[in-house]
UniProtKB/TrEMBL annotation:
Coiled coil: none annotated. Belongs to the glycosyltransferase group 1 family. It catalyses: lipid IVA (E. coli) + CMP-3-deoxy-beta-D-manno-octulosonate = alpha-Kdo-(2->6)-lipid IVA (E. coli) + CMP + H(+). This is 3-deoxy-D-manno-octulosonic acid transferase. Its EC number is 2.4.99.12. Keywords: Cell membrane, Lipopolysaccharide biosynthesis, Membrane, Transferase. Pathway: Bacterial outer membrane biogenesis; LPS core biosynthesis. GO terms for molecular function: transferase activity. It is found in: Cell membrane.
Length: 397
């Protein structure tokens, strides 16, 4: 084993001098079989890690998870970053693979790992450790403990190399994202519905919440003044949201069609209302433009935008998307999504973007982001299983 850098040895020596924090509260028992340890340094890291884990479990149903860090409900609170506490953690849990996401490193915990460790979403931000400011920076030496590091860009890869990480450990893959599996849709239903709605300009309000119904319907009626045959499809989040949307639509005087009542839209229909989100995969495929609900009102956190982008729909959204902020930022930067803040801005955006060429350009940009994210996820999964299945390294006498 190569000699550790002075900065890491100094950090571990000082941490050792502080002593162990003790065993802490009783922890759950380690599950049998392979164990994947997922550590998220921030809430933004949790969604991509969860998507990665669920994809891996689809391939290996016997794989167990240990979530630590910034999860809403972590499986375990990490111990203090001392050599003895770190050794106890790894002796108890024996993760077959650790996946770390974020810039806050725990050198003792990472150094004590008995299985391989992967770092994902390594960008250009500086990494940090709990070391005192007067100590030499242990972050570069800690980065060298990871078996593989997945950088978000070429510049991030160069920054890692400048910090001393071997090029062989760095993968310039791109960001790990929380792209969900594509929503299902019957081919027959798609073909039949496309024929019914042929030549109608169409936009979708997906996973609409009840308090957003008034703003969305008013925006539609304003946009329809410029596009007289424009049709709004509302797919509410719940049946309760559907009831409120129906009441608002009837109060507005709009000509309404209830999809779940087997009513068929005609040339005079202005709003088509579904009963819930069960057929959302169909409508994302048909709508060139989608407003994603849960974003105009505070407290909901928005809808995962990759759900729409993966099925070829351009995206409009409100300002309250904190739960998926990183995903929306990437799509906005690529030109695949646009923010709206109220009825006026939503109506104006719909009138502009419902044109096929404008929506298609945004949808293509979104599709490229989704495709890149899927490739990164696949690459990490392949590497993760290779590391999990690799025989243990022989002990050095």
């Amino acid at each position: 084993m190569p000699r550790r850098a002075f900065s890491l040895r100094a950090y571990l020596a000082l941490a050792r001098a502080r002593g162990a924090a003790g065993p802490g509260p009783d922890a759950p028992e380690r599950p049998k079989g392979a164990l994947l340890w997922l550590h998220a340094c921030s809430r933004a890291d949790t969604a991509p890690l969860e998507t990665l884990a669920q994809r891996m479990i689809q391939q290996r149903p016997d794989l167990s998870l240990l979530r630590t860090g910034a999860w809403e409900q972590p499986d375990l609170t990490l111990p203090a970053d001392t050599p003895s506490d770190a050794a106890r953690f790894h002796a108890t849990w024996r993760p077959d693979l650790g996946v770390w996401s974020g810039y806050d490193l725990s050198p003792a915990l990472i150094a004590a790992a008995t299985g391989p460790m992967i770092l994902v979403n390594a960008g250009e931000e500086p990494f940090s450790t709990p070391a005192a400011r007067w100590m030499p920076d242990a972050a570069p030496a800690t980065l060298q403990l990871f078996s593989q590091i997945y950088a978000t860009s070429a510049e991030a890869s160069r920054a890692l190399r400048r910090s001393g990480v071997e090029s062989a450990r760095i993968r310039a893959a791109g960001p790990l994202t929380d792209i969900p599996p594509a929503l299902d849709c019957s081919d027959t239903a798609h073909e039949e519905t496309a024929q019914i709605l042929a030549a109608r300009p169409l936009w979708l309000a997906a996973r609409l919440r009840a308090p957003e119904a008034r703003a969305v319907i008013d925006a539609h009626l304003r946009a329809a003044r410029l596009a007289h045959r424009l049709l709004l499809v509302i797919v509410p989040q719940t049946v309760e949201d559907a009831a409120e949307a129906e009441a608002v639509a009837r109060d507005s005087g709009a000509r309404l069609c209830l999809w779940d009542a087997d009513e068929m839209p005609d040339e005079n229909t202005q709003i088509l209302l579904c009963g819930d989100a069960s057929e959302l995969g169909l409508w994302y495929r048909l709508a060139p433009l989608s407003f994603l609900g849960g974003s105009l009102m505070p407290g909901e956190g928005g809808t995962n935008p990759f759900e729409a982008a993966a099925l070829g729909s351009a995206i409009l959204y409100g300002p309250n998307v904190g739960r998926h902020l990183t995903a929306y930022t990437r799509l906005v930067d690529a030109g695949a999504a646009r923010i709206v803040r109220d009825t006026d801005s939503l109506g104006g955006a719909v009138a502009q973007l419902v044109a096929p060429d404008r929506a298609a350009a945004m949808a293509m940009a979104g599709w490229e982001i989704v495709s890149q994210g899927a490739e990164v996820t696949d690459a990490i999964i392949d590497a993760a299983f290779e590391l999990i299945d690799a025989p243990p390294a022989p002990e050095v006498a």
